[in-house]
Amino acid sequence: EEQIQKGYNNAASGFVDDCLSAMRGLDVDSPLFRSRIQLKQCTILSGMGKHEEALANCDAAVELRSATNDDDSMVVSDDSRKEAHLIRAEALL
Question: What span, in angstroms and rounded, lies between the C-alpha atoms of 71 and 90?
Answer without folding.
Answer: 33
